[in-house]
Amino acid sequence: MENELLLTLVICRLIILIPGLPIDPMDLLGVDGKLSVDPNNVEPASLDFGLLTRSQPLAVFHPNSAQDVAQLVKAAYTSNRWLPVSARGHGHSIKGQAQTKNGVVIQMSRSKEVGMLDSVRKYPPQPRVWSRERYMDVWGGELWIDVLNSSLEYGLAPKSWTDYLYLSVGGTLSNAGISGQTFNHGPQISNVHELDVVIGKGELLTCSENQNPELFHAVLGGLGQFGIITRARISLEPAPQRVRWIRVLYSDFSAFTGDQEHLISLHAQPGCQKFDYVEGFVIVDEGLVNNWRSSFFSPPNPVKISSFVATGGVLYCLEIAKNYHETTAETIDQEVESLLKKLNFISTSVFATDLLYMDFLDRVHKSELNLRSKGLWEVPHPWLNLFIPKSKIAEFDKGVFKGILGNRTSGPILIYPMNKDKWEQRSSVMMPDEGVFYLVAFLRSVSDNGEETQSLEYLTDQNRQILRYCDEAGINVKQYLPHYTMQQEWMDHFGSKWDWFCEMKREFDPKHILATGQQIFTPNL
Ligand code: FAD
User: Fold this and answer.
1) For a designed S-S bond to 99, which of 55, 74, 422, 472 qualifies (C-beta 3.0 to 4.6 A apart)?
2) For position 268, what pLDDT does the model report?
3) Is residue 163 helix, strand or coil?
4) Architecture of domain 4-117
5) What residues contact residue 393 under an 8 Å CB cut-off, 6+ apart?
6) pLDDT tens-digit profile of 293-333?
7) What is the pTM of this model?
8) Which of 175, 141, 109 minimizes the C-alpha distance to 441?
9) At residue 300, what are phi and psi to the nearest 5 degrees?
10) What residues have CB less than 8 Å from 24, skipping those under 6 apart?
């Protein structure tokens, strides 16, 4: 049965041409899920959030279980034709990382967007919370918003987040999963106890620190190269009820980064009061006030940003949050005040709000709905995400925020530091060689009419200029959510980890069939 997958694909096509053909192609493949060649399924799987690349798969597979995923990958692995297979979480990559040309996309999320919610379909396992042990088991394609909703039913929640929750567990664990909690809890990949993974030979393996540890570490941050995550066991903590969310402004970069670094250093002092979330962003133009990170500045805080800075100047916004329970509500003001006292922001620039924990975590979704209503969500996104060593962040500010950017940005620019000791050095993710490093994220959009934002060509070129500048200035950045097209660039990215990365690939995906959209390895027949 070497070509069962190819044969199934042919039958799927025949069924479209000859409706009523009395054969179920899934029987041939031995799966419960469904393989679809319907353009309504194939087209969305050819695209992603970036809207910058397009690769059409032969078919989209909707699995019902980990066994289905294993069966499909095994069929691809044993096929005598090279047949790539890519897991697609929620397709929120920027440069086609979850796409695969002439292969099969395994649609892991329960997404309606990719069609398929027919009445006969069964679904992958629902999240299961182990409240005494404080962890939960979730399907690899589960969206973080659903993970949150399930855990909150038990008064528990994951510790480490991304800013946006409509991303899949497998998708963020294949990168790192970072947000303002990372300084304290580490990235999402540091908050996973165990995984079930279908490796590129079609075997389903459980891995953890103690069981198949090499696979466990390789898969975390592994860009989908070694296997498809079908289950993750995620660490939980008691869920806070409310959040005090504060923004303060700086015109002085070193005061801004000094305060950010002070705040993230508090994690190392047990018992010491600290904020639970530390992020920040750069404001080079007032246009930012109208974009998706800035709803905060709207009334009842009707303050003009320009009142804080001379024309043409750059402002920095520190964004911090403190979680609390209603039972301790009376002390929250004092706690926040005493933490703020030690900071050096512009004293008249404190913006504060108080909201439910759930609403805080899901904050970006509100902006998404707003942008969608204006037709500004499904547009090209030439994003650039960089990890920058602390020792070079001031130079980066001079050269990029105050230099290359000019006075328009076409989207938010996030900047926040993280502690490297909260990252597992044995994982696949690459970060700078310093104890503290920053994320700088240029989250640009290109509007359809081309008036509200700069053009795609302009922004793409600016991203190149930023990378060139870093190279020439000797700033050893690492791309987060990396995108390269040449193997030499990947070798540079992984540095001394490259040989190990290749060894893991040989062991777990010898035919190089997995996640080919990352463009790291070429086919191995
Ligand atoms: P996809 O785009 O579907 O897949 C990404 C990669 O992972 C592909 O190579 C794919 O093959 C692989 N993959 C997917 N599922 C699996 C699986 N189950 N097993 C193995 N491999 C798999 N990131 C952050 O860290 N922090 C943020 O705050 C953040 N905010 C974001 C906000 C928005 C609006 C967007 C669009 C992205 C954001 N990201 C953030 C980036 C995001 O984490 C990554 O793009 C992530 O890969 C998206 O998840 P996804 O489920 O859409 O993955």
Assistant:
1) 55
2) 86
3) coil
4) 2-Layer Sandwich (3.30)
5) 257, 417, 438
6) 554 554 445 455 666 665 558 999 999 999 999 988 899 99
7) 0.95
8) 175
9) -80, 20
10) none
Q: Give the nearest ligand 1 atom to 518 CA.
A: 9
Q: Does domain 242-479 have CATH number 3.40.30.10?
A: no
Q: How far is CA 144 from CA 151, 274, 427, in A?
A: 10, 25, 21
Which tokens belong to 391? Answer: 């020792």
Residue at 151: amino acid letter: S
The candidate with the shortest Cα–Cα distance to 329, out of 359, 356, 361, 364, is 356
Span of 16-30, 216-230, 443-457 with lowest mean pLDDT: 16-30
Q: What torsion, rounded to 10 degrees, do the Cα atoms 510, 217, 45, 121 define?
A: 100
- Unique residue bearing structure tokens 């679904």: 123
90 lines ligand 1 (CB under 6 A): yes
Q: Is 229 in the pocket of ligand 1 (CB under 6 A)?
A: yes
Active site residue 92: yes
CA distances from residue 22 to 11, 18, 28, 361, 512 in whole angstroms, order as listed? 11, 10, 13, 49, 35
CATH 3.30.465.10 for the 128-238 domain, yes or no? yes
Distance CA(344)–CA(350), nearest Å, equals: 12
So where are the chain's domains? 4-117, 128-238, 242-479
Beta carbon of 84 within 6 Å of any ligand 1 atom: no
ipTM of the complex as predicted? 0.99
The C-alpha atoms of residue 277 and residue 285 are separated, in whole angstroms, by 25
